[in-house]
Structure formats: structure tokens, C-alpha cells
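Page 42, continued from yesterday. The earlier attempt failed because a stray header line got pasted into the input along with the sequence. Redoing it now with the clean sequence only.
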Amino acid sequence: MTHALRAVATGGVVLAALVGCSSAGQEPSEQKALFEPCTGVTAEALQQAGVDPATKIAAGFAAAGWQTCEWTGATAYLRVFSTSRTIEEFEKESGTSAFTDYTVAGRTGRRLAAAAAPTACDVLFSAEQGVIRMVVVNNPVHQATDPCATLHHMGESIVPTFPA
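This time it went through. C-alpha cells are written below.
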């Protein structure tokens, strides 16, 4: 019996040691908490962007790898997504040529080519947790407006609320 307890205790120590290690001598990576757009983007920033904070629609679940929030404005809909995925993963799916650098409020992101959705503008910003994705979709009544110009205008107040 003593021998069996000693083996279990030793096995537990080995297991505890293995849990704290990763391959190739690297530290285990901790999953960062996802930015919650519905609470992280302030009402003041939303109002400055021209969207109504009261129109908030929350979607996505951290367990599924996404946090999402959407708001409605007079000329466009604003969606902010938060994920642990990286820009490189998005580029791998769509091809790096589908993206171009795009700067909003002093922060450079990667804009998906306009041909992908001519009534929408989609920009990914790197964050410590992964990516914050900002999408503006024109209200059908205002299709003449360039959606990326609208995103740029909205982003001047929204992007500074995103984590680094």
C-alpha cells in the first residue's frame, strides 16, 4: 500500500511538473480575455461616431472565440468583433493581397479589399488578445456614401476605446 501511495504521489509530482511546461522550453501561453465591445466601447464614443448606444445588440460568446456588438446610426451600422484569432490567420484565409494597411485614429490596421463587399468596410486591428475587427455597413438609403469614409469617421472616436 505504501508503495502504491508513493507511486501515485510521484506521478502527481511529475504530472504537476508537466502541466507547467510546454514543448521546446517555451512558456505555456495564457489565453487573454477577449475585449467586450458592448461594454468597452463607451456611449460617448458611440454618440461621437453617430450611432445610438441604445440600439446595442450583443452577440458572440467568448467560449466560441468571439465577442460581438452592433449599433445603428442614421447612415450606417457599426459592428465591432473581438477574437483571439490573429491578423495572420485572417490573411491566410483570404490571401494577403486581399488586405491593405489602413490607419484610423493613429492606429494602423488591415482593411479587407473593397471589392469583397462594396457596401461595407472591414478593418482588423491587432490587439494583445488577438484581433479587434470593425465593420461599417451602409444603411441602404445611403449607399452613395463610401463605407470606408464612414468607418474612418466613426473610427476616430471608436478605435481609441480598443485595447492595445
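Notes: The chain is about 30% helix and 35% strand.
Reminder to self: strip header lines before submitting.
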